[in-house]
Fold:
Amino acid sequence: MNQSMQHESAVHSTASELEKKGYSVIIEPDPSIIPFELNQYCPDILATRGNENLIIEIKTRGSYRSIERYKEIAEIVGNHENWRFMLSTIDESESIQVQADPKSLNRMLTKLDILLSGENYDLALPSLWSVYISAMRIVGERAGVPVDVTSDHSFLNYMYSLGEISSDEYELAQQFLKLRNKAAHSLEVNISRETMFEMYRHTKDMVLEWGLIIQ
Structure:
């Protein structure tokens, strides 16, 4: 499937999912039906449900538009009540939609202590990754990253491109994600105690650094 066909398929798939959730959907809406200017930007989807209005961009592998352009559009849309911009990246097999807050992250870390004490590292790692990426998404949201639905890998790339995480943090996060994927999709994964606790300490340190205080 070429890039154009992949994008069209992703647009229609997303539109179908939105309709199942009760949205009225228009694919490639005419700019005249949007009550404000978008600086020549044409969204893939306009979805409405009650007073809620979503302007959605579908980004597939190989398509390119700078994250700064997305932030610009998100700011324009965000200035209007009941309107929101969403970027959906369809370039990996998995995506994540996480709603978390500092208290829930702290509770999740407390539960992880039990798994770690029992040396259940293959079970603990995916949960630890959820804490880590959820915390980073909170930071991304605060920084105005316009990514509501996207794969973890793409989200890391966006955070790095915006300078929200350092190159060292980015490299470690990529290694962490690879281990998480192995643990999630393989029956037997050898994760050493040293590696597991390194990731655990790093996650706690980053949550503290990001201001998501652990009591």
